[in-house]
Amino acid sequence: MRKKVLVGNWKMYKTINEAVAFADEFNQLFSESPHEVGFCCSFTQIASLKKAFNGTQIKVGAQNMHFEEEGAFTGEISPAMLTELKVDYCIIGHSERRQYFGETDDTVNKKLKTAFNHSINPILCVGEHLEQRDGGKEFDVVKSQISEDLDGLTDEQVSNLIIAYEPIWAIGTGRTASPEQAEEMCGFIRESVKELYNESVSDKVRIQYGGSVKPANATELMTQNNIDGALVGGASLKPEDFIKIVNF
Ligand code: PGA
To answer: Which pTM was predicted?
Structure first.
């Protein structure tokens, strides 16, 4: 049985004070969960959130990192800087990074390798644009992302990977993929991992759905066979919303 993993992606929201206030409130609502629960926040919030969630099972991750060990890369963050903060995850290749910051399958692949070398659990994001889905290209697009992003990763690494299927047309739009659409693509991703690796790896890899997940649609999405959790943007910003998703 794969453990479900529900992670908030706070994007560029919340100051440190706001993050700590959220954590205090969330800690009141959250006691224990059979699922893995966490938040990927801005770099400035990581240390304070780790402290605020200390003694709970709630994990804290980053949203990006550089693939190089260190160097003249103004404005970037290195893997060692993140491991020093004991991050539990790092989102890699979110569509907003691909769209606005020029990330490609090649840089995503390098980042995944660096993350694993530093024992940071990556959450790899893949997903198609609306025109690609409307053109019937969604499976080709996602398959090519999977094969390029995972290139050179070992069985063990992919077994421990979290992949978030996030159709770009569903992110922040309020337009969620239907449970059938989400399940179909998550099943396809698992099948693709099986083709590239083997069944033991594809049984272990955890595949989240992301894109306008909210309390009202969480149960239907989270109870699909191939959906092992959610990456949640907007609805993770309010404790009273996110706790409902965690308790789906
Ligand atoms: P959303 O964002 O839940 O606000 O659609 C999801 C994401 O970008 O990870």
So the answer is: 0.97
